[in-house]
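Case study B.
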Amino acid sequence: MNTNLHPVISIRLFNDDKCFGPGIAQLLERVKEHRSLRAAAQSMDMAYSKAWTIVRRCEAALGFQLLVYTTGGKNGGGAALTQEGQDLLDAYNRYCRRLRDQADALFREEFGAFL
Amino acid sequence: MNTNLHPVISIRLFNDDKCFGPGIAQLLERVKEHRSLRAAAQSMDMAYSKAWTIVRRCEAALGFQLLVYTTGGKNGGGAALTQEGQDLLDAYNRYCRRLRDQADALFREEFGAFL
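Model:
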């Protein structure tokens, strides 16, 4: 009766406070692409100050650095993910993919009568 | 390094639009408890008009009634879940419980290095 009925799952990590979710994950992907937090923020129509605050709050909540910054050079300062930042982003992306697959499978089990 | 790190999963059902989630689920539980949409809304500090709109929008998106209303009688009008409403609420509650269990198990697999 509702052929398009489907689950939408939002996945966030909390410590005492919220510390990781889809927004910071996208920002980190853009830092990898643009090699700069400022350019990453611009590509998302986000103020640099907001991007900086998001990263710093995540880092404080997690207890480790997500980004390293380089200064100077021909193209000015840049940014890159730390190894731990990359590991966390990889774990989050795998986790979201696996959990959404399970969510789809469970949905067919539990909501079959409504589809 | 983050012993309290844990996932927080929000689970909603969409058709073309959002049509079921934690808010309407709680409202339906309160209707069962209070046998009245007005009393259910009051118990959540929600305006009756808002509760009524939420239920009607869900019903329109799903294509079936969630509530039946009775009028008159000693205690005035009341409300109860339809069989389909009860079935949907049961399916949603089971789905959330099973998916959160799986989310916890997957989390230990993917984020072990961060715990």
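Chain B has one domain: 15-109. The remaining cases will be described in the next quarterly update.
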